[in-house]
Amino acid sequence: RILFLTQWFQPENFFKGLPFAKALAARGHYVEILTGFPNYPGGKIYPGYRIRFYQREIIDGITVHRVPLYPSHDKSALRRILNYMSFSLSAVLLGPWIVKKPDIIYAYNLITLGPPAFLLRFLYGAKVVIDVQDLWPESVTNSGMLGNKFSLRILSGICNWIYSGADRLVVLSPGFKENLGKRGIASEKIDVIYNWCDEASIGAVGQMTASAKPEEFVGKFIVLFAGALGTAQGLDTVLDCAQLCKESLPDVHFVLIGGGVDRPRLQQRSMDLGLKNVTFLPPRPMNKMNEIYEMADALLVHLKDDPLFRITIPSKTQAYLHTGKPIIMAMRGNAADLVRAAEAGVVCEPDNPQEMMKAIKLLCEMPAGEFRKKGESGHNYYMNNLSLKEGTKKFERLFAGMIDDNTLPN
Questions:
Q1: Which of 217-231, 279-293, 344-358 has the lowest average pLDDT?
Q2: Greatest Cα-to-Cα distance within the chain, rounded to the nearest angstrom
Q3: How far is CA 149 from CA 77, 156, 182, 293, in A?
C-alpha cells in the first residue's frame, strides 16, 4: 500500500502524479493520493472544483483524497507560506481519518509535508520516503521568497530535521546527494533516481520532423526554449545571443514558449532591441506541446550560473531528450553531464551569449547524419535510463527493500 502525499496532483500538470501512480498500480500495488485542490501554477482553483472540507474522487482507478488549502502561487512570501502550511495542517488534521493504512508514504518534495508524513508513520508504522526536487532552504533563497538570515537559519534547521527524519530520501541528481551528505545526512539513506517526463503527451521520436514548421519559420533554424520564463532562467542571455545572431547567424530564430514572472519584461526588452529573430508564444499544456517540439531544430536549456543550479537537472531536460532533438545545454554540472553521457547535443557556459552562439553555430553546421544521431542518441538514452518504466522499477525496488518485500513482479 503506497500513499502519495503531495500538494499537487492531476489535473495540475504533475509529471510524477497520475502517470506514476498508475504505473505502480499496474504492477500490483495499491496506491492512493492525499492532496489539495488544484490551483497550480496560477493560484486559482481549477474549473469544476471548489474548496471544500473534504472531497474524494477516482481518477483512472486511483483514489484521490482532497483536503483544503489556501490557493496561491505568486511572489508574496506570506501567501506562499500560507499555501504550503495550510495544506500541511489539513493533511495533519484530516489525513489519519481518510486514508487507508499505508506501508509506504511517498512525500513529494515540500518540507512542509514532513509533519503529516511523520504523523502517519507514527500511527501506522509506515516508512517515509521524501522525493527531494528542490533543496531547501537554498531554493527559497534563490527564489527571493525569503532573505532574512535569522529566518533562514531557522528554516535550515527545520529542513535538516525533516531530511534526517525520513526513512529514505530520493534525489534527482548526484549533486543533490552530495549536498545533503555535507549536511550530515547518511549517504546510504539517499538514492539518486532521475526524473522522467510526461511521455504520453510528447509523443515518439519517430514523429518528430522539422517539416511541421509554420510558414513564418520555413527556412529558419529554430532554437526552442520551453518552460518557465522566470528570473532563475536568466533569459537575458538568450536575448543577447539573439542580438549577436542577427548578423552572424541570420537564419537562426529563437522561440520562447511559457509563462512566468519575467515574461513581460523579456518581451519588452526584445521589442526595445528590435529582435525580429525572437518569437514569444503563450504557454500551453504539455499535451499540446507536440507540434511545438516538431517545428524545433534544437532545444535550449539555460539557468543562471548559480552553485545550486550546477546540481540541478531542469525537468525540461528529460522532455527534450525524449523528443529526439539535439539539445543546447547552457549549464554547468549535473545537467551538462547528463547531456554528455547521452551524447545528445552540445554543452556551453551559462550567462555567456557568445558561447551560446558558438554552440548554435556548431549544430547549424553539423552534417545531417551526425545532427540526427544526436537526437536519436538522446532519445535512446532516455528510454534506457530515465523513462517512467525504468524509474518506476527503481522506486519499486526501493519501496520493497524498505519493507522486506521479495515478491516484486518482473
A1: 279-293
A2: 66
A3: 15, 10, 20, 42
